[in-house]
Amino acid sequence: MGPHPAVAAIRLAVRRTLADLAAHAAPGGTFAAPPPTPPRQVSADPTRLPRAQAPADAPLVLVACSGGADSMALAVATAFEAPKLGLRAGAVTVDHGLQPGSTTRAQEVADRLRGLGLDPVEAAAVAVGRLGGPENAARTARYAALDEAAARHDAIAVLLGHTRDDQAETVLLGLARGSGARSLAGMPAAAGRYRRPLLEVDRAATRQACAAQGVTVWDDPHNTDPAFTRSRVRREVLPVLEKHLGGGVVEALARTARLFRDDADALDAWADRVEREVRDPDDPEGALDTGRLAALPPAVRRRVLRRAAVLAGSPPGDLFARHVEAIEQLVTGWRGQGPLHLPGGVEARRRCGRLFFRTQTPNA
After folding, report:
1. Which of 35, 38, 46 is nearest to 77 (CA)?
2. What whole-number distance in Å separates Cα of residue 101 and Cα of residue 170?
3. Which terminal residue of the chain, N or C, has fewer Cβ atoms less than 10 Å from its own Cβ?
4. Average pLDDT over residues 319-335
5. What whole-number distance in Å separates Cα of residue 151 and Cα of residue 307?
6. Number of Cβ atoms within 10 Å of the Cβ of 99
7. 120 Ramachandran zone, left/alpha/beta (phi>0; psi -120 to 50)
8. In this structure, what are the phi and psi dihedrals at residue 270, rounded to the nearest 5 degrees?
């Protein structure tokens, strides 16, 4: 008898991601998994199945694990699949220090991960700041800890447990904020060292998989706290949409993300090609030719303008659509207006048919 359907679905999703990582980790883009050592039974392994061991010098992948159902299901599947592809699997759990007993809980999660056979495993304590609100501040601290752990252990990738439900929530949040196609594209399956194998898997499946394998999970109370925007979307907005629009809203939103991502990637590639054409090669400041900018489609032009502002020092997370639209007015709605002051102390100014971006100094 095979594994529970939810377990099988998660293993398949993880196997596909790990196979791609294994192929690209080897020289020349080819990979042949070394012969595994004889399977050994691990009594603490909740899958209750024999598992092979990868060589000690095999490439390492890390699982980011909070102890919740999504990331625990990912961790179990990774522990099961990685050695079969000649990969080592470890894990990192981040202690944000935002709740009583968080340090003890992080150590308990780390112990459970070691029980799965994952190695190395560490619990990383972080200090969460205030910039950008509590959700963004926690996310910034978390990713900084994951980046540091990945670099220290020379990991080829960090796996994240985001599901299709998380993707749907991200699309709704982007829609509500009016953030444009890139925001509506949701979370990518791959970005830098990060991979999200479960974006096509429902959150319910991760709970079913954990239950079927006897895996203990921890439910973060922040996930149901109405003080957090994502929590309200999860607990209030999506259920209302499902009720009044019928089932399948989550799947439809996730599909929307895939379609927007294809469009956004194509427009980004177009902007890459034309960005060099609109820059003045003789100008040390890299001024942009407003005549050539004006001839571009708006979607491409705005991308070029946004990149120019970010390159000058404007933080991407603080540079909103309204800022880019204001910069665009210097190109398409020029009436002699003065310079724009953008986040990060960046100034955008038009002069003699050229658009200049520069970072202001305190004494300027």
Report:
1. 46
2. 29
3. N
4. 92
5. 27
6. 12
7. beta
8. -60, -45
Which residues have CB under 8 Å from 20's CB, separation 6+?
Answer: none
Show the tokens assigned to 152: 């220290």
Q: Which amino acid is at 202?
A: D
How many helices and strands, by DSSP H and E, does the chain display? 13, 10
Axis crossing angle, helix 238-245 with helix 164-177, rounded to the nearest 10 = 100
If one counts every other C-beta atom within 10 angstroms of the C-beta of residue 28, the result is: 6
Name the least confident of 66-75, 120-129, 142-151.
120-129
Distance CA 239, CA 237 (A): 6
Start-to-end CA distance of the chain, whole Å, equals 73
H/E segment holding residue 109: helix 102-115
pLDDT digits (tens, 9 = 90+) for 4-32: 999 999 999 999 999 999 998 754 443 44
Residue recorded with tokens 């980011």: 64
Q: Is the peptide bond before 120 cis (omega within 30 degrees of 0)?
A: yes
As a whole number of angstroms, the distance between CA 184 and CA 174 comes to 5
Kindly state the helix (H) or strand (E) to which residue 347 belongs, with its residue range.
Answer: strand 346-351
Q: Which of 298, 303, 312 minimizes the C-alpha distance to 340? A: 312
